[in-house]
């Protein structure tokens, strides 16, 4: 018995001795600890310089096009393999197909049909590519940046893009999330709401006379307003500021020049769309618009109703921001105190125009700055 106790005591002592680290091991553990906390601190610092941007908005509003612009302006652009992978090249069936398409596009009946394209579903870029079939027919054809920007490809999963922008001696990392805007895609949006620094909400301003692809009974602009109302009043986004991109101003200008008129909506939905004819934008509002589009400053280059329509649409979105317009009964009414943690700034954009987007994006690192949006924007631009 005594012998057994003795050996047990010996085993315990040896185990205990083994469990204590040697001086050398303790030193190494301390060093490892130091390294880990250094890495953590470094990581925290990097996290601080990271901006998570969410691109939201209904389908075909231009979210993916803006992401492509970010890649061109701040990323590495598109390399040859990406260009050759583009849908444009996949869409070219054969030379014979292109010949027939070219002949059809030259037909007056088809042109007449195109002039009424707001009455059916046709992608925006159709005319752009049909006008350049002779170039696309060339076996040497390689899509240009503009061709890639015009190319339409529906987003049906959450797309993540990263790029860095130098700012004040350090790099700000942008984490951009592009989502699908069709009704069925929007339930996925909540997955990326966590830790968002800013929302970039895209609106197709030219869509006032079109209906949704996924629901032909629903007006596209009304859908965009309702969707924006949901985002602006979402409790998870209470402290997230919104950059509202009133997009496709070029398409809007073309439509107005052809005689399309937003006042038709006032007749259909008088509670949402106030009388357009009696609406007059202020001088400052016109100036703000022209600053984004200096080419329209020449009175001959733009129908006067273009700026009027763009500002009219901006007012509709601002009414939602101010709580003066409620579209969906089920959306909880929030007061100005509830909204005090975020703001909304609007921009008139043309997502396929790199200069225009660059001008707007130059301002993007600013949400990193603790100053409120309005103050900075006013100081820089007006
Ligand atoms: N002319 C013109 N075309 C635009 C503009 N913005 C986007 N487009 C075109 O509109 C089409 C749709 O744009 P996308 O960027 O794919 O739209 P999206 O919001 O990502 O759409 P979903 O992925 O379905 O949510 C593309 O063919 C773009 O080239 C614009 O400002 N002007
Ligand atoms: Mg998309």
Name of the CATH first level of the largest domain: Alpha Beta
Reported by name, the CATH topology of the largest domain is Rossmann fold
CATH superfamily of the largest domain: P-loop containing nucleotide triphosphate hydrolases
Hetero groups in this structure are: guanosine-5'-triphosphate, magnesium ion
Instruction: Please tally the β strands and state the result.
Output: 6
Average the pLDDT over all residues and give the rounded result: 85
Class from secondary-structure proportions: alpha/beta
Oligomer: single chain
The number of distinct helices, counting runs of at least 4 residues, comes to: 17
Radius of gyration (Å): 28 Å
So what's the overall shape? globular
Organism: Magallana gigas
Binding site for GTP: 60-65, 149-155, 178-182, 247-250
GO molecular function: G protein-coupled receptor binding; G-protein beta/gamma-subunit complex binding; GTP binding; GTPase activity; metal ion binding
InterPro entries: Gprotein_alpha_su (IPR001019), GproteinA_insert (IPR011025), P-loop_NTPase (IPR027417)
């Amino acid at each position: 018995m005594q012998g057994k106790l003795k050996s047990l005591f010996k085993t315990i002592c040896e185990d205990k001795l083994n469990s204590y680290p040697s001086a050398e091991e303790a030193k190494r553990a301390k060093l490892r600890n130091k390294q880990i906390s250094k890495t953590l601190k470094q990581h925290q610092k990097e996290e601080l310089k990271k901006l998570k941007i969410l691109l939201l908005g209904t389908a075909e509003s231009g979210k993916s096009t803006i992401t492509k612009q970010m890649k061109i302006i701040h990323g590495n652009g598109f390399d040859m393999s990406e260009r050759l992978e583009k849908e444009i090249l996949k869409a070219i069936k054969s030379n014979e197909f292109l010949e027939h398409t070219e002949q059809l596009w030259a037909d007056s009946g088809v042109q007449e049909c195109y002039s009424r394209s707001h009455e059916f579903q046709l992608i925006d870029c159709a005319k752009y590519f049909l006008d350049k079939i002779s170039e696309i027919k060339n076996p040497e054809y390689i899509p240009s940046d503009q061709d890639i920007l015009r190319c339409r490809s529906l987003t049906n999963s959450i797309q993540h893009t990263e790029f860095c922008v130098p700012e004040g001696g350090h790099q700000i990392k942008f984490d951009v999330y592009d989502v699908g805007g069709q009704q069925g895609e929007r339930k996925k949006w909540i997955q990326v709401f966590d830790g968002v620094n800013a929302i970039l909400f895209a609106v197709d301003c030219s869509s006032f006379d079109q209906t949704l692809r996924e629901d032909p009974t629903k007006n596209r602009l009304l859908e965009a307003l309702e969707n924006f109302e949901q985002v602006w009043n979402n409790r998870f986004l209470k402290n997230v500021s919104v950059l509202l991109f009133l997009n496709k101003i070029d398409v809007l200008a073309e439509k107005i020049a052809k005689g399309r008129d937003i006042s038709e909506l006032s007749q259909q939905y008088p509670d949402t769309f106030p009388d357009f004819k009696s609406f007059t934008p202020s001088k400052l509002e016109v100036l703000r618009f022209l600053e984004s589009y200096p080419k329209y400053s020449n009175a001959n280059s733009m129908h006067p109703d273009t700026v009027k329509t763009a500002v009219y649409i901006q007012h509709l979105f601002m009414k939602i921001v101010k709580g003066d317009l409620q579209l969906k009964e089920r959306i909880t009414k929030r007061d100005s105190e509830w909204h005090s943690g975020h703001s909304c700034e609007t921009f008139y954009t043309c997502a396929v125009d790199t200069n225009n987007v660059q001008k707007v994006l130059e301002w993007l690192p600013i949400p990193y700055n603790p100053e409120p949006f309005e103050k900075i924007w006013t100081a820089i631009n007006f």
